Amino acid sequence: MKKKLIYIVAIVAVIALIGMTLSNNKAKNENEQAIVSLKNSTVAVRIDTVATGAIDQEFVANGTFAPSQELKFSAENSGRVTKVLVDEGSVVRIGQTLAIIKGDKLSVDVTNARAAYQNAVADAQRYDNAFKTGGVTKQQVDQSKVALANAKAQLDQANISLGDATIRATINGIVNKRLIEPGSVVSPGTELFELVNTSKLKLAVTVPEGQIPLLKLGNNVKVKASVYPDKVFAGKITFIAAKADASLNFPIEIEIANNPNNELKAGMYGTAQFEPTGAGSGNIRAISRTSFVGGVNAGQVFVVKDSTAKMRKVTPGRVLGEKVEILGGLEDGEIIVTSGQINLTDGAKVSIIK
Questions:
Q1: pLDDT given at position 36
Q2: Is 110 left (phi over 0), alpha (psi -120 to 50) or beta?
């Protein structure tokens, strides 16, 4: 019995020792967590001071080059192609013959129309002479004049149709596509050629509404092509849309004179570099784009005062490269967070990273 009591006492002592150890470990962990929590009670951020001043307002917009003129030629008459005088890549001038469609029937139509016209001329002359001697009525004279006018119109139409059998270029340019061969049978509307004029090109881009007051028709613009990164082409604004698209961006067209080697091609990717000099290009209040929480359109930034970060609603204006114009919500001299916002909440304590 005495031996059994000793075992019970020993077990109780072991249990008490284990409990005391666990309690000490818990207290130690809580102390360590408190120390860590104290160390991490502030969020490390980078800051900047709001100021008004002159900044570089250059901005860029991207688009694709398009030819200044582009025409698709279609057949006006039915017939068989007898000659094709140009190939894809050929340089053509206005009035140059591109192809000839067989015009035997059209020539016959012209001959018949000319004969009918000459006969109508003779009839009208005879009726006019006869009217002077009382041989015909005034109504018959008038009818002969109407017949003469109709015969003239038919002759003109026959000549036009015969002329349409010879396909001529109506713009200066390059044959981009040739869709017929000698012997091809065509009908009205059949596409024959595609011509493009790349001596001048257009670069179509879109510009945010905030930049529009700084742009004017005729403004010079530097243009670069992605395939020629070291070359700069001279452009000029020729069109500014009167209406914005759904994204509140305005379509702009820039005309560029190609160089003598015609290195620029329609469809290439291009970048316009705008250098605004108009109204509103003076000193402005702007902050870094990285200052915004959730993007520029959200219009929210953290302002730091007494080592505390406070969320504030601001009114952003133009995006000027890495800077964003501030139209309201901030004053010069205020401190804003430019980095570290992801860890911030409204009212959090901050420590400044130099």
A1: 45
A2: alpha
Report in angstroms the alpha-carbon separations of 160 from 9, 76, 124, 182, 342: 127, 10, 25, 22, 74
pTM over 0.85: no
Q: How far is the C-alpha of 310 from the C-alpha of 42, rounded, in Å?
A: 14
Q: What is the pLDDT of residues 79-109, one digit of tens each?
A: 788 888 899 988 899 988 888 877 555 555 6
Average pLDDT, stretch 284-298?
89
- Identify the residue with better confidence: 176 or 276: 176
- What are the DSSP calls for 133-147, one per residue? TTSS-HHHHHHHHHH
Which whole number is the average pLDDT over 334-350?
A: 91
Beta-carbon neighbour count of residue 139 at 10 Å? 8
Model confidence pLDDT, tens digit, residues 121-135: 776 777 777 777 777
Contact 276, 220 (CB under 8 A): no
CB 335 within 8 A of CB 47: yes
51-53, strands of its sheet edge to edge: 51-53, 284-288, 323-328, 315-320
Which of 84, 102, 100 has its CA nearest to residue 175? 84
Q: Which residues of 46-62 are buried (b: 16+ CB within 10 A; e: fewer)?
A: bbbebeeeeeebebebe
Averaged pLDDT score across all residues of the chain: 80
In whole angstroms, give the CA distance from residue 238 to residue 236: 6
Give the chain's domains with CATH numbers.
44-55+283-352 (2.40.420.20), 59-67+197-274 (2.40.30.170), 108-163 (1.10.287.470)
Inter-residue contact 279 to 214 (CB < 8 Å): yes
DSSP category for residue 260: T
For helices 104-132 and 138-164, the axis angle rounded to 10 degrees is 160
Torsion sign, CA atoms 143, 149, 150, 152: positive
Tokens at 319, concatenated: 């995006």
Per-residue pLDDT, 38: 41
